[in-house]
Target: F-box domain-containing protein
Amino acid sequence: MNPDAAEHHHLPLLRLASSKTKKQAFFMASAPNSNPDTTPSLPPPATSLSPSSSLPSSSVTTASYCTPSITTMDYDHIISILHLLPLDSILCFSMTCRKFRSLASSESLWEFVCRRDWGSSSVDALVSSFSSVERREMSWKRLYQQVSQLSSVSCRRLVSKDGIFPRPRASHSLNYVSDCLVLFGGGCEGGRHLDDTWVAYIGNGFNRVISWQQVDSSIPNGRFGHSCIVIADSLVLFGGINDSGVRHNDTWIGRLIREGPLDIKISWRPLDVGPVAPAPRGAHAACCTGEQKMVIHGGIGFNGLRLDDTWVLDLTDDLISARWYPITNARLSPPARSGHSLTWIGGCHMVLYGGRGSGYDVLNDVWLLDIGRELPEWMELKYDNSNIPSEMPLPRVGHSATLIIGGQVLIYGGEDSQRHRKNDFWILDVGSLSRFQAMGLKRPAKIWKKLRLEGHCPSYRSFHGACTDRSGRNVFIFGGMVDGVVHPAEAYGLRFDGELYHVKLVLQL
Model:
């Protein structure tokens, strides 16, 4: 059945489904004395025409003002209507009676909901990572429930097959592209920058042992505090700082050439962006929006000045050339900061979190950016958890923020204003953020959840690199600054880490 036809033919049903009184959305309001174990019917529309209407009698037909009982619809018809409804409405539908509960438990319906809400490519990658037994016993409804109610992650340290690992570092970039991890640059002991590029093939079904390869690449030149994102199968790198304190504002494109798991090369080239570009900077935040734009915000510019500007890189010319332009007409925007995160959450929306402000204060505010509007708009989420501090993460800078399966943002690590590093995992509920933005709520519902950690507990760290694979279930974390031995005349110890961790979302399939 054509979904558009279903939407118009059963408009009263969809109107009820979108009602604010969700538990009454599906037919219960029309049957005050209904038994939950019986099947109710839809009432006719309240504005149906009467025979005394001024319209010619021949134009008034039963079909124009009578809605058929849902009991007369066949299974496929009802399922096609459910495909049009948001999750809350589907759940309300299932609470109406036994028959509807059975219909709303359809495996085909829940597979559709998973693919609709998470994207088919992510779902295919997730399912392909399951064992044959897990795939055979998998329930789509249970999978959706497990992902949406995620409560824990497991962590293990990965070892190198031949004992070769990249040099310990921090403020580097780590990306997952073409089934490989790609590591570039960063800072190391002595305040020196690094200009090396490393790759490790991951694929699906990997084990604890991987093989790092250093790729012979003399460009881009060494830097730390840069940003590097993935657009399609390419890397887009911007900015950074070298060990002389020079800030960059160049843009590079990196492409992987993989002829086998152990034969991987990478080709870097500067991207022609024309005469307009953001001011040179490092420690800024960046993310992609789909496969055509990169957005950056803030960072540290000349003379250590923290920035508050937002720029968009238009990559619609198939990565041959591009154009930078600033967002200058937003009514409100986040204050200047560095070491924060900016994460794409779908469509034209992204979420900014934390960082260090101009007064060196460490922040934990949350901002939403919508660049799909005629006038791009920033919106701050002013949530009040002052009475329950354990229900939100403490302020932090140098953390990671990764989009995982289910459209959630996974926050890990970072440090506070006293340089106390962290190893906690938090989920930022993007669904609550979307409802907050769409409905104009003054305060969103609970948007944070702290996750339990199973398995190996990594060292407390900040300014590490993190990324996720295509499935959104597996997160990889490399390096960063970790607690070290406290030397005389030092308030705290500091060392650079060179270990790779695999963090997996715990799903009870």
